[in-house]
Structures are given as C-alpha cells and as structure tokens.
C-alpha cells in the first residue's frame, strides 16, 4: 500500500500541512488531499479531482481563520450584523479565496511544480448561482467587504439545490437548463446535520389564559419542516476575519408523518418528505417580477424562521437568559422585502415562545431590523393575497393585524381624519383583493430604510414610500451600492491590477480612494501605452473565448461595446439594437463609410416566463446573424450574444470592455452595479441619468462620461402631456426605417409576425420611452466613435475613470451601513501562535 503514496507526501500529517503557506507545504498538502480526501493517485486523477484537492487545501487555511473568528466573536460577545437575503450570488470561491489569503502566486507555483495549471483548475469550479442578478451579487460583495473590514457578520439565506438556470441559445432563443451545481460536491460548505431547526406551516391557532393570567396563543401547524444548516466561510482580504454564510436546506421531519405510515399510507408519507424538500429545491428565476407562488412564500418564511431561531440560539449560548438585549447583540438587514416576514416572525418568537410583553417585543423588533429597498417597479413589489398568507402562516397574519392596528392608531393621532392616508399606509391593501404589503411590513418594523443610489433613494421618498417618509423622515437614508475590488479587479483583471500596483502600491485594493493617485498618470504617454496594451490583451482573451464559445470571429482592435445584465424591457437592450441597426443602415447606404469597427457584445438571462425579454434575446441573435454575415459590413460591425451570463463570465467581460452600455430608462434602475465594474476596469460609459450612473458621472467628471436621454423630470413631463411614441417614429426617418426593417421580416427570414410584439409596443405604448431617447442615444454614440478615433484622448478618459471610482467600493458602502445603521465596530482576529486553536 505504502508504495501508492505519492512522492513527497508524508504518512503523518504535520500541523503545518493544514495551515502552512510555503510553496513546498502547499504542494505537499495538495498531494495529501488528492490521496486521502479524493482517494486518487495522480495517474488516474481527473481535473476535477485536482480541483477538489486544491479546494480542500485552501479550505483548511480558511478554516483556521474561520474558527478563530467564531471563537473570538463568542468570547467577546461581539455585536454582529446579520444580512438576510434570499439570494447570494457568490461566484466561484477558489480564485477569490486565493486572492484574499494572499496565496494566489504561491499556489500557482505549487501547481506548476506539480505539472498542473492553476487556471485550468479554476475553470473546473461550478459557480454557485444562488441569485438572479444585481441584488444577489450585491449581497456577495457585501459579505466580502464585511469580512475585509473585520466586522462580525453572518449571512443567512437558502441553499437552493438548483440555482439560476443555465442558459443555452438554440436557434436564437433562450433555452433553460437546470443548474446542477452540487453534482460534483461542494468543497466550500460544511454541512451541520446536528444543527436542525423546526419550521411550522399552516394549521390554526387557539388562545387561552395561562395559570399566571397571561394571554397565550398556540399555533398548531399542519406541517413541520426542518432546516439544516450548511456553512460557508467568507474570508476577508488579507485579514484573519472569516465570517459565516449560513444557508438552510429543507428536510422532512423524520417522525412527523408516522400517522401516515401507521395507516399504511407509505406513499403519502414519502410524498410528504418530497414536498418538504421542495422548499429549497430551486431558486425562482424571476428578477423584479413578483411570482406570487405559495412555494416562494414558504421559502421566504422558512429561511427567516431558521435565521431568527439560530440568532436566538446563539444569543442564549452566550449566557444571556432573557431576550431583552437581543437587538444589542444583533442588527439585521433585510435585503429587499424577501425576508420581510422576519418582522412578524421575531414578534412571534418573542411574544409566543419567549413570553415577552408585546410592547417590549415590538421595541426590540424595530431596533433589530433595517430594510433596503432595491426597486420601484410596481410589478416587483411583493404582496401576498390574504387567504394564501393566512392559510400558510395563520399566526403571522394575526400578528400583522395587531402590528397594523397599533401602527394605524398612531397615524390617526398624527393625521386625524385623514382616512385616505390610513388606507395608503396600511400594511393590508384593501383596494380590491386583500393583500399583505411586504414593503409596508418592512418599513413599519424597521428603524432604518434605505435606497441603493442617491436618485433611487430620492424617488423612493417621493413615490413608493412617500407616506412613510412623511411619517418618519428620520428613518430614511441613502446607501449607494458598491462592488468589491477584490473579485472585480484583482481576481478578474490581473494585468490592470499589476500595472496600477506598480505605480501606486497595493493600498488601493483595501482603500479604493487611493486610485486617485493615478490621476497625474493620465497625461503620461508611457503609462497610457501600457494601459492600452493591458486592455488589448484582455480584449484578445475575450475574442478567443467568443470564437470558442459562439464561433464568431471578432477583431480585438474594434471598439468593444458591452451590455451585460438581466434582460428586461426597462434595461432597454432593444434600444441598443435600434442603434446597431442604425449603424448597419448607415453602412448599407454608404459602403465606403469610414466607420470605427465595432463589436457589440450582449449577455444576460431572461425570466423563463417573461415573453418580451425572451423575444429581445431572439431579436439580438437574429440581428447578429444578418449583420455578421453581410459582406457589405466588411467586419466593421459585429454583434455577439454570449450565452449563460453569470459571475464567471462577468469576470471575463468587464476587463475587456471599451464601452459600458448603461442605458435604462431614467428612474427605473435603482442603482446598477455592473456600471461600477465596467468603469473600474477602464471602460467609458454611455448612459442615462439613472441609478448610480448619476453618481458615477459626478465622480469621473461629465467630460469623461457619454450622457444621453431624458431625465426623470423630462420623462414625467412627457407622460403628463401624453406620450405619443408614434410621433417620434413618424418624425424621424431613420428611426422609422429601423422599426420598419424589423417589422418587415428582414431579420427573421421574412417572418413579419415574429418581432411584431416588440415593434408594435414601441409604436403604440413604449412604456420605457425608447423612441423618446433614440436620437439622443444615436447622436451620443457617434460622439463615442469620434473620441475613440483619438486613442490618446480615449485612454486619458479611461485612466481618469478608474482613478475616480474609489467611491464605488463596497467597502465604502459597508462603512456607511456600519456607521449610520448598524452601529457596529470591527473586531480584530489574531491567530494563535500555534497553527491550531488553543483549547
Ligand atoms: N434588483 O437584482 C435586483 N432584483 C430585484 O428584485 C430588485 C432589484 C437590483 O438590485 C441591485 C442591487 O441593489 C441594483 O443595483 C439594481 O439596480 C436592481 O435592479
């Protein structure tokens, strides 16, 4: 047997093999894990075996930091941020952990010495797609920053068995494939089969007066499901802090349906088990579109109940007997309204299960929660029909009625006789079918409410939460989103990272404001040349990927203009298509036209049930097909739709962009974070005054940003006067021609019906005002082309963009949350002198 032990692998592990960071130790530990964890020897090991062996090697180093963090928090009874989110869109762990451990180069070398290529192993990792888009990715960036800033934090969410679907493109259409991300195991999580909490559903309640004269309510559920914890360490950048991401998986309670077994209903009992597990089976793939499905409400309640029960457990573990200081130990952020049911659940736990008086429980609850709103779109605002809600959560409905009554009593005092206001503020929508409005529950139950960009926070106060703002203006603030420079620069753009670090040192990775020190270099010709060459190499890499993945050859010397995000009408991917067809028409009209060669790259998933979004994908692919094959264009225009846009692909795409397309209708994109990733990687932005674009433009300077389109106020004015999109089309020959061309079947093999829904909507309704913004967009794009011809000027603008992006680090955002909302301080984690934990 011993002859099978790989050379260099010790038969007895030393302490250092779990924690050591020298190349030699890493190499030895890697071989050891291949052998003893994967059960493989090199001759038969697959790439995935090697990936897993490396993942376990890195995980050991994480665990050292994680356990020390957990122990320190416990010993010091640290105040802790709990980030409740139905989505955490983490992206692959391995590369990021290597960066944060500061071990990337060492491991790269250790792999090289073993005859392996780190990049190939990184590519093996199946990314955990536990989110739809911006909201879930923000949660992941915030977990990175919390750890980097050494803030004690726990992320609570759902361990979906199937994450966001994989997207394939067949005949130009999106096809959804289930995401079996757990197929080959997940080395980054630690299951906690002994950490199990019970969650009740359905049934009824009854009340009685106990022997001490207290009014008590008992909830007799119809069903009990158990939540099992799965823990993932989230390490900060070059600190010893590793925080906990605890995701819950639903399981059947083994003994619950013995009744069915006993009566011989074996299948019934098994069905019950399957139904229980269904709760965490799949992520709902809708972004900013309420689904209103019972299972979705079950998911939300399931993970919130597990999270709050777990917090109470941890609180009690630290020796506290009663829960009167719960809000001093924990501060809980609600990531949108998906976890808003927590407000009622904490009340239930405090009042029903821990026998706390209502007033005290309410005080604690409100001091515990804070709520972030991420969208103003009416179709995204969560509301649950009362009968559905009451049948699933009968006790919570009673609690919500009680909260609402007490809340409205106070409103009455402040606004006597203003019944209309009461109706608008009520947690229960009584305007037609009756609903529970989750944003109202979150607003009433929180001490702080924030939007995610300055403009969005203002609009929130003027529209969706206007009455709440008038009632309690002090609760409202803005927290502009941010992104982590670790994943979105250091990991994904090593070339630019190296170039910047050579000039200004490495401080900027933790203090992004330091990028300002690049400003003087914007005029440095030598630096500019290096800057351009990094961008060019990134574009070459993306071009190679495009060739492999979609079989289209694109020229890395052409202007890479990129639009990647979820497909949604308000994000206006089809406005970009109108511009592309306009350029195409110009080339057809004038084949000799001297036009900057351009490559338009799209990526993004559409919600499976969102017909218009899917049709937009088909339109992009159809237009791509015609243009890419038209000899008249002669490689001056290429259009590519990259399938299956996800975090991994984002990491390839942002570093390679010249132009970032941020073209949503003003007032609709709450913030956007892709806009930040592009600019940080040196792309210039063509964009509207929407979301965080406004602040990006303020920071980088109006002269370094391509602005177009109507403002929110101008659009409001347009609608007030009656928006008539056909007038824009009829009075603009090129626009009319472009719309007619789509309608004529030119891009659909003569099929005039295919794209009719898009064209007719634009002519007749145009909810998102594409036609009103079209000319301004086309003109602005021409300006882009002009500047691009002056490469020195373009590069200068690119450098200045990067130099001025400091504000958009998620570290800045998290610092603001810590100071203004959470009131929490960093806790230093010191590793013990010996590598393992001291007893
Ligand atoms: N957002 O991704 C989602 N899903 C939603 O259901 C609602 C909003 C996005 O959240 C991001 C993070 O705050 C924002 O940057 C983005 O504008 C918004 O659409």
TrEMBL record:
GO terms for cellular component: cytoplasm. Its cofactor is pyridoxal 5'-phosphate. NCBIfam families: P_ylase. It is an enzyme of class 2 (transferase). One of its GO terms (molecular function) is glycogen phosphorylase activity. Allosteric enzyme that catalyzes the rate-limiting step in glycogen catabolism, the phosphorolytic cleavage of glycogen to produce glucose-1-phosphate, and plays a central role in maintaining cellular and organismal glucose homeostasis. It comes from the Bacteria. It catalyses: [(1->4)-alpha-D-glucosyl](n) + phosphate = [(1->4)-alpha-D-glucosyl](n-1) + alpha-D-glucose 1-phosphate. GO terms for biological process: glycogen catabolic process. Keywords: Carbohydrate metabolism, Glycogen metabolism, Glycosyltransferase, Pyridoxal phosphate, Transferase. It comes from Thermosynechococcus sichuanensis E542. The modification N6-(pyridoxal phosphate)lysine is found at residue 677. SUPFAM superfamilies: UDP-Glycosyltransferase/glycogen phosphorylase. This is Alpha-1,4 glucan phosphorylase. Belongs to the glycogen phosphorylase family. Its EC number is 2.4.1.1.
């Amino acid at each position: 047997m011993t002859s099978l032990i790989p050379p260099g692998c010790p038969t007895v592990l030393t302490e250092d093999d779990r924690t050591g960071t020298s190349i030699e130790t890493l190499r030895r530990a890697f071989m050891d894990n291949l052998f003893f964890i994967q059960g493989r020897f090199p001759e038969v090991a697959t790439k995935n075996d090697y990936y897993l062996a490396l993942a376990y090697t890195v995980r050991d180093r994480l665990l050292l930091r994680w356990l020390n963090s957990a122990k320190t928090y416990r010993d010091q009874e640290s105040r802790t941020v709990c980030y409740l989110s139905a989505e955490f869109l983490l992206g692959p762990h391995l590369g990021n952990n290597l960066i944060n451990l500061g071990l990337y180069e060492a491991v790269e070398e250790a792999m090289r010495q073993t005859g392996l290529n780190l990049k190939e192993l990184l590519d093996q990792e199946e990314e955990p797609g536990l989110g739809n888009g911006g909201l879930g990715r923000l949660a992941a960036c915030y977990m990175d920053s919390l750890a980097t800033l050494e803030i004690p934090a726990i992320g609570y969410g759902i361990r979906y068995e199937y994450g966001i679907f994989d997207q394939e493109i067949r005949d130009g259409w999106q096809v959804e494939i289930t995401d079996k991300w757990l197929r080959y195991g997940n080395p980054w999580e630690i299951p906690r089969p002994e950490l199990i909490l019970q969650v009740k559903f359905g049934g009824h309640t009854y009340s009685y007066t106990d022997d001490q004269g207290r009014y008590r309510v008992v909830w007799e559920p119809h069903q009990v499901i158990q939540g099992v914890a799965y823990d993932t360490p989230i390490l900060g950048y070059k600190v010893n802090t590793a925080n906990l991401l605890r995701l819950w998986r639903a399981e059947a309670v083994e003994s619950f349906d013995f009744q069915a077994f006993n009566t011989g209903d074996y299948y019934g009992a098994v069905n019950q088990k399957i139904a229980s597990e269904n709760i965490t089976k799949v992520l709902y793939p809708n972004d900013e579109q309420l689904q209103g499905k019972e299972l979705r409400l079950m998911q939300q309640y399931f993970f919130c109940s597990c999270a709050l029960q777990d917090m109470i457990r941890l609180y009690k573990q630290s020796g506290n007997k009663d829960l009167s200081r719960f809000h001093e130990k924990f501060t809980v952020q609600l990531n949108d309204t998906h976890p808003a049911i927590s407000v009622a659940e904490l009340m239930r736990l405090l009042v029903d299960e821990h026998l706390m008086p209502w007033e005290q429980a309410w005080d604690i609850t409100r001091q515990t929660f804070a709520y972030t709103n991420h969208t103003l779109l009416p179709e995204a605002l969560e509301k649950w029909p009362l009968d559905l809600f009451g049948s699933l959560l009968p006790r919570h409905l009673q609690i919500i009625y009680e909260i609402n009554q007490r809340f409205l009593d106070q409103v009455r005092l402040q606004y006597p006789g203003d019944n209309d206001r009461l109706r608008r503020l009520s947690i229960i929508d009584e305007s037609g079918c009756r609903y529970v409005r989750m944003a109202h529950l979150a607003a009433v139950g929180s001490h702080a409410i924030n939007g995610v960009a300055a403009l969005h926070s203002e609009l929130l106060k003027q529209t969706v939460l206007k009455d709440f703002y008038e009632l309690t203006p002090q609760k409202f603030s803005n927290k502009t989103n941010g992104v982590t420079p670790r994943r979105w620069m250091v990991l994904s753009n090593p070339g630019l990272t190296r170039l910047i670090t050579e000039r200004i040192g490495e401080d900027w990775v933790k203090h992004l404001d330091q990028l300002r020190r690049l400003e003087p270099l914007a005029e440095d010709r030598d630096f500019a040349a290096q800057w351009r060459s990094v961008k060019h190499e990134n574009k070459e890499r993306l071009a190679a990927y495009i060739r492999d993945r979609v079989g289209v050859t694109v020229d890395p010397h052409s202007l890479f203009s990129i639009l990647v995000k979820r497909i949604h009408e308000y994000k206006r991917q089809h406005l970009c298509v109108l511009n592309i067809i306009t350029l195409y028409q110009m080339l057809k009209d004038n084949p000799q036209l001297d036009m900057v060669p351009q490559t338009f790259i799209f990526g993004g998933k559409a919600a499976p049930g969102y017909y218009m979004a899917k049709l937009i994908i088909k339109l992009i692919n159809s237009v791509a097909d015609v243009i890419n094959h038209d000899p008249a264009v002669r490689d001056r225009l290429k259009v590519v739709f990259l399938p299956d846009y996800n975090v991994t692909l984002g990491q390839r795409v942002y570093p390679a962009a010249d132009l970032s397309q941020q073209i949503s209708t003003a007032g609709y994109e709450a913030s956007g974070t892709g806009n930040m990733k592009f600019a940080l990687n040196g792309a210039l932005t063509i964009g509207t005054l929407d979301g965080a674009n406004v602040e990006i433009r303020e920071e980088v300077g109006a002269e370094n940003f391509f602005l177009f389109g109507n403002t929110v106020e101008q659009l409001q004015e347009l609608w007030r006067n009656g928006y008539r999109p056909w007038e824009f089309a009829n009075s603009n020959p090129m626009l009319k021609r472009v719309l007619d061309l789509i309608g004529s079947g030119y891009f659909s093999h003569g099929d005039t019906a295919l794209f009719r829904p898009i064209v007719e909507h634009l002519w007749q309704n145009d909810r998102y005002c594409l036609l009103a913004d079209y000319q301004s967009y086309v003109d602005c794009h021409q300006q882009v082309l002009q500047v691009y011809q002056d490469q020195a000027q373009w590069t200068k603008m690119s450098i200045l963009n990067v130099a001025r992006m400091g504000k958009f680090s998620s570290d800045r955002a998290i610092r603001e949350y810590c100071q203004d909302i959470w009131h929490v301080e960093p806790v230093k984690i010191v590793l013990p002198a010996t590598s393992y934990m001291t007893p």
